[in-house]
Amino acid sequence: MSAAAATQPTAATGRRKTSVAHVRMSEGSGTITINGRPFEDYLPTLPLQSAVLAPFQTANLLNRFDLNVTVKGGGLHSQAGAIRHAVARALTGFDPELRKELKPEGFLRRDPRMKERKKAGRPGARKRFQFSKR
């Protein structure tokens, strides 16, 4: 990689359910900011934090990049999944060789599961009103 490409911030987008995360990654000391708030404040539990850091741990690049994240929609779990997806994409944009490590772990795959819409004439997506034979 050239020196100019390494200093340039890498941007990527990740999605899960209705959450969309935009990540700007640049080389630094490992500072993560999500929607203008510190990483530990925005994602208060350890499982959520480790989900976001998992691509860095797999690639052995922990505390090497600064992240500026903007995330919208969904809940905290969905947002953590979207951030993880975006981080993995940004890492492959930084170094395409990392794809070999991240792809088998499933970090580059968008989770397609969504909430199913409510259908007309029914109380929910799949539930039916009570059937009475007589």
Automatic annotation (TrEMBL):
Comp. bias intervals (Basic and acidic residues): 103-114
Basic residues bias: start-end ranges: 115-134
PROSITE patterns with a match to the protein in the record: RIBOSOMAL_S9
Record carries keyword Chaperone: no
Compositional bias annotation for Low complexity: 1-13
Record region (Disordered): 1-21, 103-134
NCBIfam families assigned: PRK00132.1 (NF001099)
Protein name per UniProt: Small ribosomal subunit protein uS9
Organism: Haloferula helveola
Lineage of source species: Bacteria, Pseudomonadati, Verrucomicrobiota, Verrucomicrobiia, Verrucomicrobiales
Gene name linked to the record: rpsI
